Amino acid sequence: MSLLNGLPAHVLLVHVVVVLVPLTALVLVICALWPQGARRLGPALPVLALVTLASVPLTTGAGEWLERHVADDPLVRRHAELGDGMLPWALGLFVLAAGVWLISRRTPAAQAGARSGAVLRVAAAVLSVVVAAGAVVEVYRIGDSGAKAAWHDAYSKTATRPGDGD
């Protein structure tokens, strides 16, 4: 994907990732720590995580197109390198979301009677918190590097025109 409505697709698609990764991470942690929440959401959690996962390669693919259409810049290269690392985090969110959903589907009586079920729920909760935190930190790092690449020489720190409040 290259252009959407005359703009590089990456600059539009990146907003999907920036919103969906933290949202998916938050919902995953809530559902992992609160099984009733996971039961109430039903398949919405893994579906949200799947959409999040699908948005990452679309965005990075559009970013690769954009990278070929801008001047060679170390900040752009750094952003691209960091962006390539997002897919494993999104995959982790999806796998854990599917696992938390499957665990939540077990009947409460079966969960209460099985010690292994409790261990599985605790392991899923711990992994969910770790992967969710890692995914959010990674999105922040990628976004910060992208903003620096896009804006590092595109504005003046002092006002170039008089305006209100300057």
UniProtKB/TrEMBL annotation:
Domain of life: Bacteria
TM regions (residue ranges): 12-35, 47-66, 86-104, 116-137
Annotated ranges, domain DUF2231: 6-154
Keywords: Membrane, Transmembrane, Transmembrane helix
UniProt keyword Transmembrane helix present: yes
Pfam family, one: DUF2231
Protein name per Swiss-Prot or TrEMBL: DUF2231 domain-containing protein
